[in-house]
User: What shape does this take?
Amino acid sequence: MSSNLIYVIGAGGLAMVFAFWKTNWIEAQDEGTDRMKSIGKSIADGAMAFLKAEYRVLAIFVIAVAVILGIANNGRADSSVLISLSFVVGAVASGLAGYLGMKVATKANTRTTHAARTGLASALNVAFTGGSVMGLSVVGLGVLGLGGLFMYYTNLYGMEAENMPIVLNVISGFSLGASSIALFARVGGGIYTKAADVGADLVGKVEAGIPEDHPLNPATIADNVGDNVGDVAGMGADLFESYVGSIVGSMVLGSSILVASGFDINFVILPLFIAAAGILVSIVGTFMVSVKEGGDPQKALNIGEFGSSAIMIAVIYFLIQVFLPESFMQAGEKFTSMGVFYATVIGLVSGLGIGMVTEHYTGTGTPPVMSIVKQSLTGPATTLIAGLGVGMQSTAVPILILATAIVGAHYFAGLYGIAMAALGMLANTGIQLAVDAYGPISDNAGGIAEMAGLPKEVRERTDKLDAVGNTTAAIGKGFAIGSAALTALALFAAFMVQTGIESIDISKPMVMAGLFVVGMFPFLFSSMALGAVGRAAMAMIEEVRRQFRDIPELKKALDLMKGKDEKDWNDEERSDFEIALGKAEHGRCVEISTQSAIKEMVLPGILAVTSPVIVGFIFGPETLGGLLAGVTVCGVLMAIFQSNAGGAWDNAKKMIEEGVTINGETIGKGSEAHKAAVVGDTVGDPFKDTSGPSLNILIKLMSVVSLVIAPLIA
Assistant: This one.
């Protein structure tokens, strides 16, 4: 059976070849004017500068943890020093996926802008192609890493039942490496992007009254850089972690299953083959995404996503029929292969369901978002109240979907079914991430169009793509949260198998204490993230204000914009404005965001990594189990609330900027309602892009750390 794993490796390799092919296609597209090229280069240079600074810090962390893991597991009968190798490979793969995705995204942004000069369809094609490179890089590196390590370890130790615990203990280090990088990438990227975004919006749009992404605003380049480091590299690392975590969790639980003949390796390797098949289906899905001029980009993206999901269901059925026996035993209960299929499909459908609910609460023109728009008429206070209400309400249906998925998957296939449900939800990660990563590329394209002074219709096209991108990003965050919940539960179940815990008694004081204490963690973690954004944003705001005040050319241009309409400027005034365009010190703003993000991401990361270790070694596995339960429940709720509230505020602002009629009155840019909506969006930005998404990783990281230390505390 080991020889069949070459097909898994081949699928991972195919994903990387596809990503390389699409990268070359993007590079062959026209970048546009010299001004567009210069702006694009500034964004790309800023993004790479941040990644280099971040990876220098992370390299130290990776080396230190690898050494500790090697020492702790050296000489053990149920583990090996090779867990350090798995950890390093997982960390490198996660970091490489983020790097490749962001590299291409910063190439695709200018090319999307140029394509938008000719039409919406060509712009969508470029932006989505850029996103597909991110998506296929993530799944390709995940499958190559896990598949390659599993082949190596099974050749080294064997594939027999008695050897499988050591193989799976060692390979779990890969998931830990991915999780560690993901947390820092999400937190650091989120702080970076929101510091720049908040600074640019509050000083530029609200105080100075200039349009979003205007070249006079010193924070615009940093803001566009942030879209890439937060929503491309950060989201890629997030879903990479969920993806490999669900595979590892399924493999560990598969090793505990018995059939008539005893141990069956097929239950362990099936997750790898489903992941490999998901790559092929995702590639097919990318060819389904197309839109005619004047068509609906959202519909085109939905066709790709839902179409590939339908194909995936058929593929999963085929693989389960090939690999699994008709019946099996787990924890003393009998289940069937069809039960595993039903559980996997439940996970896949649940992911789509959570995405659709998220779209309802955050999409442009939906009743919840429209309610925020209406409340903006009475000022920022009511805007904030409405957004908080929408965010809180939005937790209900996704939680019910998750609860139904958990119960249903367990009914059909036990704990293995829950793990397979998580895998089913993530089977199409390639196409899902492609749809998600398309959003920040479109956002960047709009910013470049504004900064390059392109015609109004170009910005209108990019804004349409961006509005859809906001929705796809919100759906992606909902999808990431749902997958995080199921993945964490799968890892939790794997932890119980590894430690030999059959149940956790919450009536025990230590277990209940663990539930309460760690139930607080998502709130503490969110406060750290929001506080970091606030501090970084203040520094950014002060810098932008300083430049507007102390740079004469900028001050003169701003006064000119306030005093006269652009069509009434004389030649001298136009000359003064052109001179001012090159005076904004963008580099200083990029530096502020970079330094703040690197500094502020360390403490939350240490909190997440060390807490399970301290609790596990001092209080034992049962208390640690209580810890995992508490952080999962509270973390999922907080993540849904923050992500959806932020997404709703964002699209409410977008609707007003496009012009909306309420009670016969048209409300647009520059109105008091618009200023109120900008305040709401500013509050929501760190919710949806920093603290909310970071909680996904918090709950998964704490689960995978617990799984890795399970042999040491059992």
